[in-house]
Write a structure and sequence with these properties.
This protein is an alpha/beta fold and 220 residues long. It has helices at residues 17-29, 53-63, 75-78, 82-94, 117-149, 152-156, 176-187, 193-200, 204-213; strands at 3-9, 39-44, 69-72, 98-101, 106-108, 163-166, 169-172. Helix 4 packs antiparallel against helix 5, helix 7 (176-187) runs antiparallel to helix 8 (193-200) and helix 8 crosses helix 9.
Length: 220
């Protein structure tokens, strides 16, 4: 059996250990995969961006018949919308590839007749919740931006980390998603403020301010 693991990160310093360890152990212990043959596909992008090279290579190899199973740590690693999730799973299953979700202990097999209907329903529900969560985050961020634009600090100060000013409006800069992922890692204590300041090329004071005073801009 040829097994692949898919992991996704958004910054160079993001901690991949948990994803790699979980998918590796599952592939070896549950699927009997030889560690030396485990294919690992990885990306540095946000979950709402499906045009990612590792993801595309995974699908290409699956459709070429090179894979039998794909292991991911959790649903949100491979998709953050129900449409993206359904599309990805359908492509893999049509190619004869089983999808294993480690954290939820779910297996979606190519042969739908052998599929547990309860697992299928749970999988669809998780996709709905993942999409809802992404929409709520976007709404919270929009509200945070609106509140920030009304403050004196916004009118007279520089744009917050990950933002820029465009004709008097606060807009997300090109590194916004990278900033969000980095700050989230700091908040989860997976990265130090010093590492974050180096990753984002800013001072530690800027990192602390983003976390303590402007967390609504990053949905933290």
């Amino acid at each position: 059996m040829t097994v692949a693991a898919y992991v996704r990160v958004s910054t160079a310093d993001q901690n991949l250990d948990r994803q790699l360890e979980a998918t590796h152990n599952y592939a070896v212990d549950e699927l009997g995969c030889d560690p030396s043959t485990l294919e690992v596909y990885r990306d540095k992008s946000t979950g709402t961006d499906i045009e990612r090279s590792g993801y595309q290579a995974l699908l290409s190899d699956a459709e070429a018949g090179r894979l039998d199973a794909v292991v991911v740590h959790e649903v949100s690693r491979i998709a953050r919308s129900i449409s993206d999730l359904e599309r990805t799973v359908k492509q893999l299953r049509d190619a004869g590839v089983a999808v294993h979700i480690v954290s939820e202990r779910m297996v979606l097999r190519p042969d739908q007749e052998d599929e547990d209907p309860y697992q299928r329903a749970l999988f669809q529900m998780l996709g709905v919740f993942a999409e809802l969560d992404a929409k709520i985050k976007r709404q919270n961020i929009r509200q945070g931006i609106a509140a920030r634009q009304e403050s004196e600090d916004y009118r007279h100060g520089p744009a917050p980390l990950g933002f820029e000013k465009d004709n008097g409006e606060l807009v997300q800069a090109g590194n916004y998603h990278r900033v969000c992922e980095t700050l989230e890692q700091v908040a989860r204590e997976e990265m130090s403020q010093r590492q974050a300041s180096k990753e984002l090329d800013c001072g530690r004071k800027t990192i602390r301010r983003a976390l303590d005073e402007r967390s609504e801009l990053y949905d933290l």
